[in-house]
């Protein structure tokens, strides 16, 4: 299943990249690596120039990064920004008690279910020429800023997306620091700062690294945000692969996609190796006591640290709340600034009167819901099976683990491209020709994108199950399969449902693979519709975004109700 | 029914063993958890594996249950090899230390779970069988309760009822009481033994608590480093430990070692000879009867033990002068540690002791553990 849905398409892409006119060749790669357009100054390294000369040019201010270099550069910047924005949040969430803390903590899961294209719309609504930010600046008599289509906009959008991830994993690690470890350090003579440095920090920083590594991988493969906020002039690898696909240069697209794949898999693998060596299991710890944000008789340092946090809260509020709020606001604001429902009316009108080639809202919503339901049904058994496989102990489990989680690091473009070339254009097996429709391919791509989240929500529960429960059932006469049905699944059921909600939400918001596969006229989904609207009119795009927000919000409620908070992600 | 506690070893081949381990070894990579173990558990017997943690007792139980397969050797049930038979087809009931009750099922559903795969006895419905077992473990009417609402002892009994409901041939208990407090443990072990006797079910019990092992078992296997050091009824293990390890692991003991200096001939034909053994400059007199005692000659190195209750104040043939080092008041008796020439001697007394005392023992109260021929 996984092989057919993921490894076969990705393999197709790989073959595509090395087979030209029926002959195996690495020439496509060689050309790619030597092309300064992609690799900047590094291309000259691959072309055989002296490393010293390259290094000298690289350090000069006029260095060229190339597409790949720029992609890595923006990913690194985004990672730094995400960590910078995420860490104070983790500190706040892990160490303070205040009303709404639990809600806020659960809200950090939102990015996983927020469609990236919607975030992009939100950012356009906030930072665009007529966006909220400039409206505020104008009202204050300040000159407007043009953030759209700049690196800054992309980095801020990425931080919006990934800082909560950093905050989430860090908070979890911080909360599992045993208070008695800190108290022991204090009793042995360490001051509070020293105790933090010696006891808390070593337990927290692997989590920060986790967040950073994932952020880098996600932002390296970023697509919708860059497409919407950067355009082609600030293209990342992913965007360029998409453009090459649109231009039908599949071999070059495939080769470029493979380069991207190697880099992000490399980072993920390096991280996984690191994590394997540094896993500390801490169970039954007594967490550190939480502080009040408003102490009764504050000391100077307490006041200062709280002022710092207050400033952070303002910035965070701006970054996280403004885009969503602006999007909702923009969807009900007319060109003249008055409140209006015109944009929604436009959607309804378009539905009734739109021509066949135009993007209509209802098919988009219908497709999104249909694809999401189908993808969830597909992702669920895949995820559960993989979760069961990865929680067993046997030789080569690590390999299965890595192979099963690889889709997290592989961008939708690659999967989409593989499915397009492999399934949609047809494949011959034993004389039969199989060709899937775009819709089927989209469902498969979404299932592939979603099932790692099912694994992530189900596996910890399975892992945590007491082995003697399973053995008791076995001794009582139940077969292995029967034990899964009678004992394991019922006990991890909340995780299964949360995983389903994840898969559903991921599918609803998935844009990258869909836009590759939905080149046909009628298989577009809400995110694709938004992207098609966004180029022409912002209003309907924001209205569509609000519809999408409502649908994903419902999925979020389901996840939250079923204890997604306590799960791995 | 199990043999009378204290009965002498009978020939194992007289009855076909319910469970037999034949040269069973279990390795995990480099480590050997169970090392070439051969054991026979008789039909209806209450057989206990006891030993310190890491001695391989739980692994042995898991090999019998089928949760692990031996690296080499054979496990047989009633003479038939069970190699490759999965746990669900072995007709065993297992109770774990943490009870492992299914938290998503009621007590009744837990007890009845095994009846999904095995029919209740003729003429009894499933519900009746569940009630019957809950009554057996003294928890009538608990069927609709939630396992988590029960106390530890009650959960343990539910686990017992669940294991017994399908009518297994063999009951396997893996430290079922070690999570309970001492008093409850003592009450429950009486109950477990009663239920076992009532049903006559062959039982293998694993514990690290030697006192529990002595109290509950027909026979005990004292295990160390993956092997049984001694397999015998509790009284035999207590009175005639076969090794220094067993002597010191089971109950309090004083173990001595020294050279034989002289041998007095037996006073009567049926009485043992008495050896004089040089321990730390004192000559202690030890009866060396029975097997192995015949060949002992002066110059041999003898290891022997004397239980604290046989060391008496100002009495006994061999006496030494020792100083009181510490005393623990246990209620009925006081356990006193004496220092004698750099050794610790354990004594049990009713009267408080202090300062210097003279303790002694008679030759026949000493038990010879081993002889190193010179």
TrEMBL record, chain B:
Q: How does it sit in the membrane?
A: Peripheral membrane protein
Q: What main location does UniProt list?
A: membrane
**Domain ABC transporter: start-end pairs:** 19-250
* Keywords noted in UniProt: ATP-binding, Molybdenum, Nucleotide-binding, Transport
Its UniProt entry gives the catalysed reaction(s) as: tungstate(in) + ATP + H2O = tungstate(out) + ADP + phosphate + H(+)
One GO cellular component this record assigns the protein to is: ATP-binding cassette (ABC) transporter complex
Q: What class of enzyme is it?
A: translocase
E.C. code: 7.3.2.6
Function description: Part of the ABC transporter complex WtpABC involved in molybdate/tungstate import. Responsible for energy coupling to the transport system.
**Protein name per the record:** Molybdate/tungstate import ATP-binding protein WtpC
